[in-house]
Amino acid sequence: MGKKFFKGGLAAFILVCVVNPAPAQDQAAPNQAKEKAYRIERSISQKALACIECHKKESPGLFADWAHSRHASANITCIDCHLADPADKDISQRHFKQYERSDNKWGVSDYRAPVAAAVTPKDCSRCHPDEAKQYAKSKHANTIEIIWKLDPWLNAGQNSDFERLTGCLHCHGTVLKLKNGELDPMTWPNVGVGRVNFDGSLGSCASCHTRHRFSVAEARKPETCGQCHLGPDHPQLEIWNESKHGAIYHSEGASWNWTSAPGTWTAGVDYRTPTCAGCHMSGSGPVLTTHDVTERLSWELQAPLTIRPQEFKPFPSPLDWKTERKKMQEVCKQCHGELWVKNHYDQMDGAVALYNETYFKPAKAKLGELKKKGLLPKDAFFKAPIFVEFYELWHHEGRRARMGAAMMAPDYAWWHGFYECKKRYVHFMKQANHLIKENQKAYVAEDYPGATGSTKKPAEIFNQKK
């Protein structure tokens, strides 16, 4: 979309708490409630003021979030982010009806302005250009392309539209569309990290900096990343909670300084142990802050076979893994000695090699043998229980083992990881060898529930790639 900056007054906001004096007989009551009001002590555009005053009444929670934000103190109002170009196709027609009211003095035609609900990284880039550029290169922003290139659930239509919408796409993002002139409920609301916006930008900054507070403190805390990075297949939040990092955070994190300016959040000064953001995004020592979470990675721990990031075919990283590993090690060395860091990486690399050679490669070869002998249809995917065994070996237990080793969570590395890998591997191999011995085709469900999803790749992404 082509949202515009709003040309308001140049004076800064002054946020004033107006306290109504209590009656004399109540002056001594220490818990006497006092009414607080928000007042703007400067001249701003009447349209901008209308937005603020109307939302203060109609959606007080939204207003309160904004009023406590750094945007408010920096003179950034609703209309600065939501004002749309008259040519934008996602202008809210419903919002125009707000200017035809008789019960709200701000809801009149004098204050009419075209607005759009979906604020995009392109909009945010007017004030945050570096962050937007970094984010656009990341796997977060490009995750819809990635999952459509590799995910059998989508490509085989194995889950329904609503299963995707309320599950997968809630985190990965939707392709925004219109229905009857308004945002389509099958695509909105959504703040997925890879959301495809009308202006061509990818993602939503509100994935991590939730509206309308857009708090840097919130984005630095692990619970924010844990909205998506949790569960049986990628339990990074649970793994981190178990680690020493997580234990220290839960013990004393409430006293840390979460609100220091971007680029200045410092280990040993503002916080004692890193969160997800501290390791993967925040500036630390000689390493600069980044909004590209693809950086600092030396392994693709989520892939079936662990590979280097530049070998990840759906979205190969342009970065050199050795350089990025050194960056992450510099982050580690803000709190750990050089030998400690080196040995930790040696342990992680050993766990990766063990998983690749002992579990994944033999299982993948056996799956290939089943297909070659015609005992497992190539398109069986989740309709065949034996395929599920193979899938969960890498997608569940294998990921937990590798990520547990990388993030120093022994219970996940062993009991939720390699121990479960052993069980899954033995069960899979037993079934596969039996089918081969008996020359028997694997069971494939005839009636697989919810397998109604479209198998058509989003044109908004893949037509542009030609």
UniProtKB/TrEMBL annotation:
TM region positions:
none
* Protein name stated in the entry: Hydroxylamine oxidoreductase (HAO)
Single GO molecular function: oxidoreductase activity
| PANTHER family linked to this entry | DISSIMILATORY SULFITE REDUCTASE SIRA, SURFACE LOCALIZED DECAHEME CYTOCHROME C LIPOPROTEIN
Gene3D superfamilies noted in UniProt = Hydroxylamine Oxidoreductase, Chain A, domain 1 (1.10.780.10), Hydroxylamine Oxidoreductase, Chain A, domain 2 (1.20.850.10)
Q: Keywords for this entry?
A: Signal
Residue ranges of every copy of the Cytochrome c-552/4 domain listed in the record = 124-181
- Pfam families, A to Z: Cytochrome_C554 (PF13435), Multi-haem_cyto (PF13447)
